[in-house]
């Protein structure tokens, strides 16, 4: 179908923008979507391969809603990286549409979003907006759920499922759900009352296969039998290196997925060591710049920053959640600009994103979660494979696994190369998640009676799939009972109403059990470490840092002296494996940070990474903030919490609290001032020349202007 055939049926701006991007024809899934009533407001589920252009289907629906119906549109995806990429692409394509992105602060109703026509959000953020009663969510014209197979994900699925169910019963918006990997697309489309668009079209041919003995065994489309390729170019005997040699000899780029951060780093080092000189040609200056930027991301570079900045000089990078955001973005940009040739990544780059990777290698098909290992499913491998051969960058691509011998090759071939996608199963029914959602449904007056609660859950995908709601009803009863005992809800005739405490807990987006634990234990805290232990001993702070030997020793003593803090009700079932030692070790990490230990030492002491450290500090900030808010409601003292929050935010000892009140003064500058005898803001006022000599004129002026 030609794009021009849509003239008169969709706002012309869309056609114009498509043409600008060189899109003249609709891909088959796009054309089928139009036929199935995309333009008539039908709900639509699109199950079509990676790179088949699912985003454009969403885009047509969104812009039509905005320009033709004057109704807002919202794009929801589970991964922040993906939301960011789509937001940026969209803004570029439609600069005149008021577009906003919101993926941050979970305790805000972000009233400003009401003024925007197109909103990009993460699943959690959207759920939190609804908890805050953001009114505009009811009048949205079009809702996009990208990567909807995430419904089956144990950690992110339940919130997505609840959000979708809430929105379906509270708004009349057209719903478009997209995925490349759902085995039971029909079932999902029935649940959503949607038309199903199925297609196996992929614009760029993606050859999938298994490497064995320096050759690739590709799948033959007609017979599904493996076909042997010519020998890969190169001389290395390591298949991963050999593949990179082969890719570089074709002047292409590769993305290699590893099962752990450590393996990704080791892989990048192997590649840089053996092939560095082939990967840098003509790019030395740009790589040098980038390397410097990566090294300078923190005041004091950590081991990891040093390692990464060195590898980059060889045209190779690793990429995982342990990097700082700024580093991740810089690497992605450099890969897109063909400056970096090889990225060794964990699955952080695995979903939805458009990257110029001609070759994708999934080096290891194991996945590690909560210290247990399992094999990846077909869906996950298919998603990672799908990052290769994207239309924006390539006319063909290849996606590969490695086998040590022919027998293994045949197994992998059968299990991953020609296997069908798996069905998605609802992951609802996990107590901590339900606890939080049941409270929020009551607090927002979405549902107030047990009957309506049960009929709401019958409308979830869980209810649709399993029909039998016996188990779910029992769990909900248990949850209602706990929330009542914890005084977060109360019974009022046949109804449940949220208490002031319950409403606030729901808005704060923390597990009600964490709130209950804070309330019980905050009264017994005596020092900063106690506070940090209280906030660390929650589900939200997981995964914990590794328990250090020091933490183990100190924990025994701590347990003895802090009996009061430890006495608490908890059901180990609610926590999975309850791990107060891990929580204590995490509290020690935060404590060291607030005692001004430098990043490199911290990362080393707790076997952590700068990215993980940053995430811990951000999470802790949110939990302390929640503790402060809860204290306010219960009229408990909160001064110590407030101080601790500032100390954590800046990573400073108590004595620097006064100085950091000024902008431009953070952890490092405050310490410099203090060591030079300038200990308070009024000391600054009296020692201007000294301050100027310490920081230079420009910064000093900015500081003085605040006095
Ligand atoms: N009709 C078209 N003609 C040419 N290029 C197109 C067309 N539709 C989309 N594209 C381009 O194809 C690329 C891939 O599209 P998109 O990101 O929507 O894939 P996807 O189906 O969402 O894949 P994934 O499942 O991996 O997220 C984009 O760069 C997009 O601009
Ligand atoms: Mg996509």
Name some characteristics of this structure.
707 residues; alpha/beta; 8-stranded mixed β-sheet; 7-stranded parallel β-sheet; 32 helices; 49% helix; binds adenosine-5'-triphosphate; binds magnesium ion
Question: What are the SSEs and their pairings?
Answer:
Elements: H1 12-20, H2 28-35, E1 44-47, H3 54-68, E2 73-77, H4 80-93, E3 99-102, E4 118-122, H5 123-131, E5 142-145, H6 157-170, E6 174-179, H7 185-191, E7 195-198, E8 205-212, E9 215-219, E10 226-228, H8 239-249, E11 254-257, H9 261-279, H10 284-295, H11 303-312, E12 316-319, H12 325-336, E13 342-345, E14 359-362, E15 366-369, E16 372-375, H13 378-385, E17 396-402, H14 406-417, H15 431-443, H16 450-458, H17 461-466, H18 470-485, E18 489-492, E19 495-498, H19 500-508, H20 512-522, H21 528-536, H22 549-561, H23 563-566, H24 572-575, H25 580-594, H26 599-605, H27 610-633, H28 639-650, H29 667-675, H30 681-686, H31 688-695, H32 697-704
Parallel strand pairs: 1-6, 1-7, 2-4, 2-5, 3-4, 5-6, 8-17, 11-13, 11-14, 12-13, 14-17
Antiparallel strand pairs: 8-9, 9-10, 15-16, 18-19
Q: Helix amount, in percent?
A: 40-55%
Strand content: 5-15%
Based on Cα principal axes, name the global outline: globular
Radius of gyration: 27 Å
Mean pLDDT: 91
Number-wise, the strands total: 19
Low-confidence stretches: none
Largest sheet: 8 strands, mixed
* Terminal CA distance: 66 Å
**Structural class of the helices, strands and pairings?**
alpha/beta
Q: Going across the biggest sheet, name each strand in turn.
A: 10-9-8-17-14-11-13-12
Number of helices: 32
**What ions, cofactors and ligands are bound?**
adenosine-5'-triphosphate, magnesium ion
């Amino acid at each position: 179908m030609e794009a021009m055939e849509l003239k008169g049926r969709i706002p012309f701006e869309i056609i114009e923008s498509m043409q600008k991007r060189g899109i003249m024809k609709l891909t088959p899934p796009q054309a089928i979507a139009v036929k199935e009533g995309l333009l008539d407001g039908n709900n639509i589920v699109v199950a079509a391969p990676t790179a088949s252009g699912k985003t454009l289907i969403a885009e047509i629906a969104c812009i039509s809603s905005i320009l033709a119906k004057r109704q807002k549109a919202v794009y929801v995806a589970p991964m922040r990286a993906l939301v960011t990429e789509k937001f940026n692409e969209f803004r570029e394509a439609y600069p005149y549409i008021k577009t906003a992105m919101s993926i941050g602060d979970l305790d805000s109703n972000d009233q400003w979003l009401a003024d925007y026509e197109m909103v990009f959000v993460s699943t959690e953020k959207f759920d939190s907006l609804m908890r805050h009663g953001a009114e505009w969510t009811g009048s949205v014209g079009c809702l996009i759920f990208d990567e909807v197979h995430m419904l089956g994900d144990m950690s992110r699925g339940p919130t997505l499922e609840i959000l979708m169910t809430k929105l379906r019963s509270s708004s009349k918006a057209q719903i478009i759900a997209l995925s490349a990997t759902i085995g039971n697309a029909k079932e999902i489309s029935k649940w959503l009352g949607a038309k199903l668009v199925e297609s196996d079209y992929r614009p760029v041919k993606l050859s999938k296969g298994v490497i064995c003995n320096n050759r690739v065994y590709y799948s033959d489309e007609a017979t599904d039998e493996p076909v042997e390729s010519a020998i890969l170019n190169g001389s290395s005997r390591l298949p991963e290196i050999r593949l990179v040699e082969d890719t570089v000899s074709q002047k292409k780029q590769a993305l290699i997925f590893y099962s752990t951060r450590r393996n990704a780093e080791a892989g990048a080092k192997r590649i840089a060591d053996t092939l560095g000189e082939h990967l840098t040609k003509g790019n030395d200056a740009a790589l040098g710049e980038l390397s410097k930027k990566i090294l300078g991301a923190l005041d004091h570079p950590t081991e990891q920053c040093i390692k990464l900045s060195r590898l980059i000089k060889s045209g190779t990078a690793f990429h995982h959640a342990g990097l700082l955001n700024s580093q991740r973005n810089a690497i992605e940009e450099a890969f897109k600009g063909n400056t970096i040739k090889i990225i060794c990544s964990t699955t952080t780059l695995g979903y939805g994103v458009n990257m110029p990777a001609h070759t994708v290698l999934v080096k290891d098909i194991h996945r590690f979660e909560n210290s247990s290992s399992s094999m990846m499913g077909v869906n996950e491998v298919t998603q990672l494979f799908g990052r290769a051969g994207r239309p924006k960058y390539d006319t063909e691509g290849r996606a590969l696994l490695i086998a040590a011998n022919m027998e293994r090759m045949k197994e992998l071939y059968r299990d991953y190369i020609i296997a069908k996608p798996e069905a998605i199963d609802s992951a609802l029914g996990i107590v901590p998640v339900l606890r939080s959602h049941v409270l929020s449904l009551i607090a927002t007056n979405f549902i107030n009676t047990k009957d309506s609660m049960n009929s709401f859950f019958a409308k979830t995908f869980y209810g649709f799939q399993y029909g039998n709601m016996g188990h779910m009803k029992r769990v909900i009863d248990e949850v209602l009972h706990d929330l009542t005992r914890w005084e977060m809800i109360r019974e009022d005739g046949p109804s449940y109403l949220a208490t002031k405490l319950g409403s606030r807990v729901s808005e704060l987006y923390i597990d009600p059990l964490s709130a209950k634990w804070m309330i019980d234990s905050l009264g017994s805290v005596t020092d900063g470490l106690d506070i940090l232990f209280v906030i660390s001993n929650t589900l939200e702070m997981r995964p914990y840092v590794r328990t250090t030997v020091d933490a183990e020793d100190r924990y025994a003593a701590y347990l003895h002296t802090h009996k009061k803090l430890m006495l608490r009700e908890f059901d180990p079932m609610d926590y999975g494996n309850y791990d107060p030692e891990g929580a204590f070790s995490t509290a020690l990490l935060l404590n060291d940070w607030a005692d001004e230990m430098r990043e490199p030492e911290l990362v080393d002491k707790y076997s952590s990474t700068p990215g993980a450290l940053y995430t811990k500090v951000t999470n802790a900030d949110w939990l302390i903030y929640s503790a402060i808010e809860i204290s306010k409601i219960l009229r408990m003292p909160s001064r110590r919490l407030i101080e601790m929050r500032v100390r954590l935010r800046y990573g400073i000892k108590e004595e620097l609290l006064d100085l950091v009140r000024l902008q431009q003064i953070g952890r490092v500058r405050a310490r410099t001032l203090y060591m030079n005898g300038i200990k308070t803001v009024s000391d600054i006022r009296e020692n201007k020349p000294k301050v100027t000599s310490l920081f230079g004129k420009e910064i000093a002026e900015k500081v003085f202007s605040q006095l």
